Each structure stands twice: as C-alpha cells, then as structure tokens.
Amino acid sequence: MIETEQQIAEKVARGGRLSAEAGLWLLQEADLLDLGAWARRVRERKHPERIVTFVIDRNINYTNVCINRCRFCAFYRAPDDPDAYLLTEQEIFDKIEETLALGGTQILLQGGLHPKLTLDDYESLFRNIKARYTVHLHALSPPEIVYLSEVSSLPVAAVLRRLRKAGLDSIPGGGAEILADRVRELTSPNKIATEAWISVMHEAHRLGIPSSATMMFGSLETEGEVIEHLLRIRELQDETGGFTAFIPWSYQPGNTELQGETATGVEYLRVLAVSRILLDNIPNIQASWVTQGPKMGQVALFFGANDMGSTMLEENVVKAAGVAHRLGPDEIIRLIRDAGFVPAQRNATYGILKRFD
C-alpha cells in the first residue's frame, strides 16, 4: 500500500524505514523545503552535535588510460593517444609528499583499466608507499579490482587479500554510477555490471576492508532507477555494515561522448535529501561541492549532508568535463562555520582529528 504524505512524514520523524514507493514519491512530488527539513531531521538524529567534517587528501589519478571507454567519461584516453599517461612511482611519491606537507592524511588512488598493469605492479606500489609514508590508502574502485581479478586469473577475494596485505586500507565507491544494468548498457557497456560491483563491495566488507558508496545521477536513468540504486546500497549495508559514507554527484556532460544536460541545483538537493532519508543505515552523507560548487555544497548541509568531503588538493576526472571547483581547508572551515556548524577535520574512517570550535 502506498503511504500518504502524512504517514511518510511521521515515519521519517520516528526513524522508520521507507519503502521504494515512498522514496519515489519523495523524489518526484514532495515539497522541496519539506524534503530538506525531513532530511535535516534524519541528519540531526544521527549527528546531534552539529559537527560537519572534512578530510585533507589528494586524488591521485595514476593513469588516464582505460579500455572501458565509458560514454559519460571525459577523462579516459586510449593507450596510443598523445596525451595518455602513466605516472611513475616517483611522481606518485612526490604527490604524496606534497599532500603530507599540507596536513593530508589520506590518498585516493584510482585511474583507468590500463592494459599493461598487473596485480604485481599494484602490490609493489602499495608496499613501497607504505614503507615510506604514514598515510591511509583509499584505492582502486570495483572496476579496477575486477579487472585485476580477470588479468591475474584469481578470484576477487584473493585479489583483495593480496592488495590489503600490500597496504590497501579502504576502497572508494567509484564505478557505481547507477546500479541498474539498463543504464549501464547505454552509458558504459564495457564496464562491470551491477552484480559485479555489489560483489566486490560484499567481499571487501567481509574481509574487513571498509568502503564508500557513490551514485552518479543525471545521465540516462529514470527516477525509479535512482531509487533502485539507493535500495541496493541499503540492502548491502544491512548485510555487511561496511559502507562508511554515501556520495551522490551529478553527471558532468562536458567533453563526453554521451553529452546531455547537467542536473540542476534543485535536482541535486532532491537526490541528496532522499539519499539521506532512505539510507538509514549509512552514517555519513557527503556534499559534492566538487561538482556543485562551494555555495551549493553549503546548502547541502541543510538537505542531509554532514560531511564536506575532501579538500581535493588534486582532481582530474571532473575537471576533464570542464568543471573545476577548488577549496582549501581554510575555505571549507569558513563555509561550514558560516552555515552554523562546527567544522572538524576527520580521518578516512570518520574519526575526528581536530575540531575548529
């Protein structure tokens, strides 16, 4: 039975779990300000101290070579393209040292599916990073891990065990886009299917490797498929509890084969708020100022977000689509404080390192 608006509001107020039908109604029909208020209530229940966190890290894209050739991606290059690159180990070390010098605690290391890289290459790199630096290694999204499983002829669990032994600390949620195979066939037919993405995260969580989860919306999906994505994440979190955070961000069409239009700010806020309400078992929701800009990132704090994400000392994938927002720690602290919250620097697993009262 489809719940009424009052029933949905009452269920949100008491912390009840919403159905797919209720989630779709929220996304399509709920008043925007009511929706924001409901999402804010959920956030306040989970984070009553009014702390908004951020992490100082760097996104190191070790290569832009990728055989997947996703239609929504402006970053990838073929191996023989003149601007294709693969960073040397020393170049990666230099970037890590710059990050640590600026107070960074985490490295986000991900790239494309490079046909010449092997599991041994990643193990060697991870071991050498850990031998030199005290830094959290948040690395390799599920498509990269599945690819390593294929080229090494090893099960995903075995690949993950080897990577963890070499120094992998956690896994980013990239490669999810929309967890509906109809959409994936249209936007990224060479990329792993929904069940493969879910399977990697299930195995990682089973092995004690935490991860984030993401969603790229605004390409070719329906609103029902947005809800389907959220419920697949919620279902897996019920089973494993391994997701530390969820990050929804809007598709950026610039310089892509797929093209199209960018989602509006209102559409972003609706998806963000519905994510906070439906994902009742995920503690943290991150504002995507990298795609939305700093002002919308600030507004997101009133639509369910409790984390401003990373300072992104370096970011290349969204930048390739023509979007380049940059924020330093001081600017993020000011945005959080001006919104009436307490800024706090966190680590990769959302432990508080320093408050800025």
Main attributes?
alpha/beta; 15 helices; single chain; 45% helix; 13% strand; 4-stranded mixed beta sheet; globular; 357 residues; TIM Barrel; 3-stranded parallel beta sheet
What report would you give on this structure?
The structure is a single chain. The protein has 357 residues and is α/β, with parallel strands linked by helices. It has helices at 5-14, 20-28, 32-46, 89-101, 119-132, 142-152, 156-166, 181-187, 194-206, 223-240, 265-278, 289-292, 294-300, 317-320, 329-338, and strands at 51-55, 57-60, 106-109, 136-139, 211-217, 243-250, 284-285, 307-310, 342-346, 352-355. The strands form three sheets. The protein has a four-stranded mixed beta sheet, with helices on one face. A three-stranded parallel beta sheet has the order 2-3-4, covered by helices on one side. The longest helix is centred in the middle third of the chain and has 18 residues, at 223-240.
State Rg: 20 Å
Beta-strand residue fraction: 5-15%
- The chain-level mean pLDDT equals 92
Query: How are helices and strands ordered from N to C?
Result: HHHEEHEHEHHHHEHEHEHHEHHEE
Quantity of strands, as a count = 10
Largest sheet: 4 strands, mixed
Distance between the termini: 47 Å
Summed up:
The protein is of the alpha/beta class and 357 residues long. The chain has a single domain, classed as Aldolase class I (TIM Barrel, Alpha-Beta Barrel). The protein contains 15 helices and 10 strands.
